[in-house]
Amino acid sequence: xxxxxxxxxxxxxxxxxxxxxxxxxxxxxxxxxxxxxxxxxxxxxxxxxxxxxxxxxxxxxxxxxxxxxxxxxxxxxxxxxxxxxxxxxxxxxxxxxxxxxxxxxxxxxxxxxxxxxxxxxxxxxxxxxxxxxxxxxxxxxxxxxxxxxxxxxxxxxxxxxxxxxxxxxxxxxxxxxxxxxxxxxxxxxxxxxxxxxxxxxxxxxxxxxxxxxxxxxxxxxxxxxxxxxxxxxxxxxxxxxxxxxxxxxxxxxxxxxxxxxxxxxxxxxxxxxxxxxxxxxxxxxxxxxxxxxxxxxxxxxxxxxxxxxxxxxxxxxxxxxxxxxxxxxxxxxxxxxxxxxxxxxxxxxxxxxxxxxxxxxxxxxxxxxxxxxxxxxxxxxxxxxxxxxxxxxxxxxxxxxxxxxxxxxxxxxxxxxxxxxxxxxxxxxxxxxxxxxxxxxxxxxxxxxxxxxxxxxxxxxxxxxxxxxxxxxxxxxxxxxxxxxxxxxxxxxxxxxxxxxxxxxxxxxxxxxxxxxxxxxxxxxxxxxxxxxxxxxxxxxxxxxxxxxxxxxxxxxxxxxxxxxxxxxxxxxxxxxxxxxxxx
Length: 584
Prior knowledge:
The protein is an alpha+beta fold.
């Protein structure tokens, strides 16, 4: 491509609405333009990157035995109602009616549609296993779109679905897809982790993993062990519980003495937060029980954690096997506790109580009294309130130990790139999608689901590829492999050498961008920083002697006097970039 013909409108200033670095640089470089909140157009530079990402995904999906198809974005609402997800998905599901008042949804995912296809096309175990995928535009009505392509309302996604006769078959495909995902993200040069995860709105009946790109802008937290292979999303992260020394029930006599004492009410006017309460009573947060009232599928429940901890709502939801879990409204809290938020406590509370394991080990604790402006001292778990339901209901935190080996846990921010699920028969049973097995019996398909956020991957790679001065795409997905910049197109030697390099490299199959504009060198260099080519060739005063300057990913300039050697180097790197890591 000649830059004089390229639709690339660069911006010198950082757009005010762009928080993430990837968003800022892709707007400045003319990769994307916003059409509406959370909805973007991909301009030629951005679309080239997107297509190269798609190409890598297709190559690895095909190599893993998946077949590509294409399903409609507009889906009949009755399919979603049959699966039970029509209400579960909530306002994020974009709904509409056609002129005949038939109801449809714009698909954020395609489980229902693909199951309806399998129900029609697959009838016998002899046709199994089947693995299909598509790369398709998806829609989700995000309440707060942000970070550009990282959280949008319209996005590009690769979603694959496998159909098997049994769980053993599903496990084989799951491992194949897991390995394919590792190859895909390795080929894009990403630093990532595969972590245990929660299945969320997709649901399922087996294991599930997320693939997370490490980046400070990430909205998820990756918890990993410093010594072994354990890694999980914060929503799922387990840890070894170690009671605080001041709370452990190590002294039976002391515990008996404390249990015999009557709890003491304390007037705490206007004290609602744990920090305020700890300061007011001069007690550490580890001696305070935090009581939160939740609504789970219409039922109320109290969740107890230590004052210095945070409730993990996903763990609560999974323990209750609920579809919806959310904090109760202030009005509901007042009705069931008799006090405003901030004064709830477990003693005398007529609700099911889920107590975190650490709470069960506490003695002589402070808690809300279920009275306005009042707390109570001397609460003993198991004496003054029930401990029938205990478990892990809090987030992992720095200082916690690995569940597997006991080493220190590490915490990183991460961007979700992809997610793989063992769905089991969740959707096939709900939609009556069956096959005839070898015994002539009708059986529901055992399914897996495997997604990659294609446009999110583009933003995640950008986040990891931005230096202080340049955006440098990995060679495998760069819009151009080489950017040739003649300092002056009016100089005959510079122009002729630049054209020679451009023609020869283009004929060799290298993506080359030639800056043939009559612009100042400073303007060309700033635009090159935004164009993101991993290799830049600067043609200047040495052109008459066949000498050019080479700028690679490391940012170090060096002079090259043999154009043939330069071409061989570029061809060699391009050849390596085209192959999966294990095939080099």
